[in-house]
């Protein structure tokens, strides 16, 4: 009798094992492509972004009356978990968009369709920014997702404070940046530099690393952080915190400028909010691309990727809609709606950046940044390594480790996760 | 046997809805997570049985888990210890039935009935950097330099403890007030007649009589503190990591979330969950046994 609970537990576990093992990733039966189809598209972001993608979907319907696309918003906070749950249950949206490497990760686990099957790569590759395209596709060349939009970094600076310090043009190199910070400090500016996007994080270091001639990985995906260039970049970045007092706790760019910080590196979305949220700053700020390092100018380019789920019954129509998202008419529609909503939208085609939702001057700065753009590494193990690499960088900034040790530790982590 | 079944059939039938929900929403997910903890389940593919590999890696190879475990222990000891102490102090101060006492009790109990998400956002604003947060405004008025509260690793756990104690002491206070009011007044009268000082009355009457309440407050406090999540996730999460600067706020549940829902290692995350369950189970057992042993002394 005493053995009963043990036996019951064993049976329960066995049953569970059997139950769990019934899941599979067999190919989904496709619906008739000539029949009416309702496609569900889950878009990670805000409702305004959903609205501009819905505009493109409505436009698509005009030329494809049989296809109805419904776009729904997923907030950044829980999108990943919801998409994972949908993948596990093999029921959910036909199209998803989210973080640049998400489609690679879902694809590697059998959750996404290789879009090469529908010719998406041949149509879109030539139109996309090569660096961003490389970042969105898997290391083996499989195309589980393609770039949906772009985001990049620029410097936002207070023209009045620069004038007061006697700086006539925005620094174009690291040395000029350092000289400008010294002048600003001498003129009474307490906080010459601050970072919004990428503060204490690998994204912040990314720009300096590439500007110094370093990389996270070699072209064949071997970790390459343990180099003199990487060390030089980290030393310069650490100096911004330790010597020039850049805050380690992130202050939003607009707030920083409004309270007397002379320059802030921030994402492209910052440009949309400064005049609106801080009317007193009108006419007192401008934008510039990041100063170039010893190896030249480089700027991080991020964005979202879009792909088709492997459990979609309408994979072909979904892939066709993704191709449509790159057309002139679709982008024009999205830009028009984005302007109505004051949305910071940069299309995934570099040739159309001048017609983004920003002012022509702002678009020109972003176009210049993107011209020298490099995207996040798409190498195996990077997503797993990124948080730990950030921690090693933090230990250098906070004085817990010297730059060489921090980079050596980061390189070890990347090597371990590279498999 | 059959007679007994017939006699109790109505009761069994009435139990079926609850039993269905209990099995479907508690036993099944629990047993499923136990099974998954022995697999390499990644959320999409069919899970493959890997034996004790997850637990071996977790306990002997995973530095981040050890860091999370250490942070959690420090946090739990401080949060539960101070939380219990402040709950008792508040109960002693405001256990009366006068209006001022009732109002104070209501004020201190308010955080317990407020959404924890709202509270955490409030704390985040309080500790905003630069001149924007309340904390920096206050110390600025005192002529001190601003502090980067949320980016200073040595302040992370003290801030988490502060948030926990502030949010939880009202609930503990209500339990202690109920306990205090159930102690017969005759005990104190007899002690006073025998010449006991106020401290002696507290030490030899109040504290021993409050032991069941203390056990309850400590055990529930331990369980809550071990499962801390919102505070870390909302207040300290950075762009790319969940545990704050240098993982200074990384606790077991945020780590579990990170492994399960950021890195798709659901098998491994299940193993973390079961290790957490065992820790809470053993500590609660020790606490209950200790309470019983002290009572028998």
Automatic annotation (TrEMBL), chain B:
<feature type="domain" description="ABC transmembrane type-1">
    <location>
        <begin position="69"/>
        <end position="287"/>
    </location>
</feature>
<dbReference type="InterPro" id="IPR035906">
    <property type="entry name" value="MetI-like_sf"/>
</dbReference>
<dbReference type="Pfam" id="PF00528">
    <property type="entry name" value="BPD_transp_1"/>
</dbReference>
<feature type="transmembrane region" description="Helical">
    <location>
        <begin position="266"/>
        <end position="288"/>
    </location>
</feature>
<keyword id="KW-0472">Membrane</keyword>
<keyword id="KW-0812">Transmembrane</keyword>
<dbReference type="InterPro" id="IPR051393">
    <property type="entry name" value="ABC_transporter_permease"/>
</dbReference>
<protein>
    <submittedName>
        <fullName>Sugar ABC transporter permease</fullName>
    </submittedName>
</protein>
<keyword id="KW-0813">Transport</keyword>
<feature type="transmembrane region" description="Helical">
    <location>
        <begin position="12"/>
        <end position="31"/>
    </location>
</feature>
<feature type="transmembrane region" description="Helical">
    <location>
        <begin position="73"/>
        <end position="94"/>
    </location>
</feature>
<keyword id="KW-1133">Transmembrane helix</keyword>
<keyword id="KW-1003">Cell membrane</keyword>
<feature type="transmembrane region" description="Helical">
    <location>
        <begin position="106"/>
        <end position="126"/>
    </location>
</feature>
<dbReference type="InterPro" id="IPR000515">
    <property type="entry name" value="MetI-like"/>
</dbReference>
<dbReference type="GO" id="GO:0005886">
    <property type="term" value="C:plasma membrane"/>
</dbReference>
<comment type="similarity">
    <text>Belongs to the binding-protein-dependent transport system permease family.</text>
</comment>
<feature type="transmembrane region" description="Helical">
    <location>
        <begin position="213"/>
        <end position="236"/>
    </location>
</feature>
<dbReference type="GO" id="GO:0055085">
    <property type="term" value="P:transmembrane transport"/>
</dbReference>
<feature type="transmembrane region" description="Helical">
    <location>
        <begin position="155"/>
        <end position="178"/>
    </location>
</feature>
């Amino acid at each position: 009798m005493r053995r009963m609970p043990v036996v019951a537990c064993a049976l329960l576990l066995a049953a569970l094992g059997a139950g769990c093992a019934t899941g599979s990733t067999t190919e989904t039966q496709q619906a008739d492509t000539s029949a009416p189809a309702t496609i569900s598209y889950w878009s990670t972001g805000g409702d305004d972004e959903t609205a501009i993608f819905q505009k493109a979907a409505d436009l698509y319907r005009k030329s494809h009356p049989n296809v109805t696309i419904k776009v729904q918003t997923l907030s950044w906070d829980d999108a990943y978990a919801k998409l994972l749950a949908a993948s596990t249950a093999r029921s959910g949206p036909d199209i998803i968009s989210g973080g640049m490497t998400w489609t690679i990760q879902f694809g590697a686990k059998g959750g996404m369709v290789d879009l090469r099957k529908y010719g998406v790569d041949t149509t879109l590759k030539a139109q996309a920014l090569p660096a961003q395209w490389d970042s969105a596709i898997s290391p083996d060349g499989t195309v589980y997702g393609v770039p949906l939009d772009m985001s990049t970094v620029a410097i936002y600076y207070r023209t009045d404070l620069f004038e007061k310090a006697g700086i006539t043009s925005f620094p174009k190199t690291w040395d000029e940046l350092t000289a400008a910070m010294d002048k600003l400090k001498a003129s009474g500016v307490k906080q010459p530099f601050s970072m919004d996007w990428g503060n204490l994080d690998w994204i912040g270091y990314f720009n300096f690393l590439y500007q110094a001639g370093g990389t996270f990985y070699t072209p064949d995906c071997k970790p390459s952080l343990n180099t003199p260039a990487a060390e030089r970049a980290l030393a310069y970045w650490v100096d911004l915190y330790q010597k020039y007092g850049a805050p380690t706790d992130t202050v939003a760019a607009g707030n920083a400028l409004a309270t007397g910080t002379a320059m802030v590196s921030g994402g492209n979305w910052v440009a949309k909010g400064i005049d609106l949220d801080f009317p007193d700053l009108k006419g007192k700020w401008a934008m510039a691309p990041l100063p170039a390092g010893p190896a030249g100018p480089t700027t991080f380019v991020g964005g979202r990727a879009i792909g088709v789920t492997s459990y979609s019954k309408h994979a072909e129509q979904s892939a066709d809609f993704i191709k449509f998202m790159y057309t002139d008419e679709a982008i024009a529609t999205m830009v028009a709606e984005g302007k109505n909503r004051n949305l910071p939208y940069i299309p995934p085609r570099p040739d159309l950046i001048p017609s983004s939702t920003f002012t022509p001057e702002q678009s020109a700065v972003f176009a210049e940044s993107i011209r020298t753009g490099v995207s996040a590494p798409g190498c195996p193990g990077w997503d797993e390594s990124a948080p730990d690499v950030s921690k090693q960088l933090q230990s250098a900034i906070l004085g817990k480790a010297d730059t060489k040790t921090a980079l050596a530790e980061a390189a070890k982590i990347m090597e371990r996760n590279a498999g | 046997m059959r007679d007994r079944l017939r006699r109790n059939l109505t009761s069994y039938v009435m139990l079926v809805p609850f039993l269905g929900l209990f099995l479907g929403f508690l036993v099944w997910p629990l047993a499923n997570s136990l099974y998954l903890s022995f697999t390499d389940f990644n959320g999409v593919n069919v899970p493959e049985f890997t034996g004790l590999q997850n637990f071996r890696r977790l306990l002997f190879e995973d530095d981040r888990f050890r860091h999370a475990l250490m942070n959690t222990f420090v946090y739990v000891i401080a949060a539960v210890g101070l939380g219990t102490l402040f709950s008792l102090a508040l109960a002693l101060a405001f256990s009366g039935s006068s209006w001022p006492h009732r109002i104070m009790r209501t004020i201190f109990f308010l955080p317990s009935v407020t959404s924890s998400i709202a509270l955490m956002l409030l704390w985040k604003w309080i500790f905003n950097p630069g001149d924007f947060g309340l904390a920096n405004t206050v110390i600025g008025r005192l002529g001190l330099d601003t502090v980067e509260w949320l980016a200073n690793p040595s302040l992370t756990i003290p801030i988490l403890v502060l948030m926990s104690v502030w949010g939880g002491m009202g609930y503990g206070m209500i339990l202690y007030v109920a306990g205090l009011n159930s102690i017969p007044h005759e005990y104190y009268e007899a002690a006073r007649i025998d010449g006991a000082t106020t401290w002696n009355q507290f030490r030899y009457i109040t504290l021993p009589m409050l032991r069941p309440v203390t056990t309850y407050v400590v055990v529930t406090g331990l369980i809550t503190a071990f499962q801390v999540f919102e505070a870390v996730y909302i207040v300290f999460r950075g762009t790319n990591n969940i545990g704050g600067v240098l993982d200074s706020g990384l606790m077991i549940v945020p780590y579990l979330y990170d492994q399960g829902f950021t890195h798709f290692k659901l098998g491994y995350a299940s193993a973390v969950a079961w290790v957490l369950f065992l820790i809470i189970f053993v500590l609660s057992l020790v606490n209950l046994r200790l309470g019983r042993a002290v009572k028998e002394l």
